[in-house]
Amino acid sequence: MISTMVQRIREVLVFLFLALVSKANGVKPIFSWGVGLPFEEAAGEAYCLSWRLAVETNNVRGWRTVPTKCLCHIENYMIGGQYTRDVELIVEQIMSYANGILLSGDGMDAWIFDVDDTCISNLLYYKGKRYGCDPYDSVAFKAWAIKGGCPAIPAVQQVFVTLVEMGFKVFLVTGRDEETLGLPTTQNLHDQGFVGYERLVLRTIANKGQSAVTYKSGVRKQIEGEGYRIWGNVGDQWTDLQGDCLGNRTFKIPNPMYFVP
């Protein structure tokens, strides 16, 4: 309780100091806690901006749910245009990097993509879960995924097609269960324009219970063991981009709605 009060007082003092400095200099404040918002609401928005940044930089780890007070912030981020702009900027970086690669011509130049919220979006599902404020529900998610109605993330679908056309062998690696979600996932990807990839890899019984890092490291190790050179690795979770055989470069798609351990 005392620490909360101290933090609140600190926030108020910082706010007043910056306001006085801005007024003295005759300029608008350089900070933005929400134009026209009451102070507490504006401070809450500032906290959620910091929380989302900490998530994307992997400084907040192992979190189970989005803070309830950040529901509106995450909703606005995901559907208000900023998420789309962020993904498009990352895709620009992917293409800038890919265009500088000289392919060997032996058909062994590879690229890896995660599936959920990297290639196809579960945003409609997470809207019903208050954008991650509700705890993860494996049964409900499987029921959603088995319908095969996830839309493509447009910028990622475009870069996927471009990489295939350039001659990269693209591997799609997902933590989805092969036994129950293999066919609907394959069909969903096909319906959304993800065709021409080298292989779709899903969890089998042998991978059951493995962490995402252990499972995906094993898949990448197998791919490299077949002689492929992994040039790029794209995922929305840090656990997609950690472990062994990561490839030459990794790219993180933003996802503040959930964390996969």
From TrEMBL:
Pfam families linked: Acid_phosphat_B
Keyword Signal: yes
CDD domains: HAD_VSP
Keywords: Glycoprotein, Signal, Storage protein
Molecular function, one GO term: nutrient reservoir activity
Recorded family membership: Belongs to the APS1/VSP family.
NCBIfam families given in the database record: plant-AP
Annotated protein name in UniProt: Acid phosphatase 1
Organism: Rhamnella rubrinervis
